[in-house]
Amino acid sequence: TAGDLPYNNRMQPWLPIRIWSRAQDTYRSWRRHDGNLLAASIAYYGAVSFFPLLLVLIASLGFFLRFTGRGHDAQHRLLQTIAHETSPHLARQIEVVMQEAAARAPISGPVGMVILMVASITIFVHFEQAFDRIWDQPRSPSGSMLAAARRVLYHRLRAFVMLLGVGLLILASLLSSIA
After folding, report:
1. Can you point out the beta strands (E) in the chain?
2. Spatial CA neighbour of 57 closest among 112, 4, 6, 17
3. Largest CA distance in the chain
4. What value does the mean pLDDT take over residues 20-29?
C-alpha cells in the first residue's frame, strides 16, 4: 500500500542543472585524463593509415583489372561510359591511370599492406592505452628490457588479432551482402 512505502522528500534537481553538472563532470574527467592528447594520438595514426589504405585499395583494383576477365570487361564498360557521358579525352586519362594501377599493383600492394598493418596495430595499441588511462588502470611495472619487449610484443600481437578479427567481420559482411 501507499502507507508502506518510504517517503523521499528529496527532490530531483531541475533538468538543466543536472545536464550542466554532467557536462562539468565530463569536462573535468576529460582534462584529468588528457583527453586532447589521447584524441590527437588516435587521429594521427588514423590519418597516417589513410594513404596506405588507398595504396592497398588501388593495388587491389590493379590486380582485379589485370588478372581477371571481369576486370577487363568492367574496365572496358567504364571507359566506354565515361567517353560517351563526358569526353573521350577524360576516358583516355582514366585508362592511363588504370593501366598504371595495374602495372604497379605487385609492388604498391604489399608495401601498402605492411604499412597499413603497422599503422592499424599502432592505432589499437593507442586505443588500449587510452582506455587504460581513462579507466585508471595501473601502468605496467618497469622491469628489464626483455620484459618490456615481451609486453610490447604481447600488446602488438593482441592488437593484430583484434585487427584480424575486424577484417574478418568486414569480409563476412561484404560476402553476406554480395550473397
Report:
1. none
2. 112
3. 87
4. 88
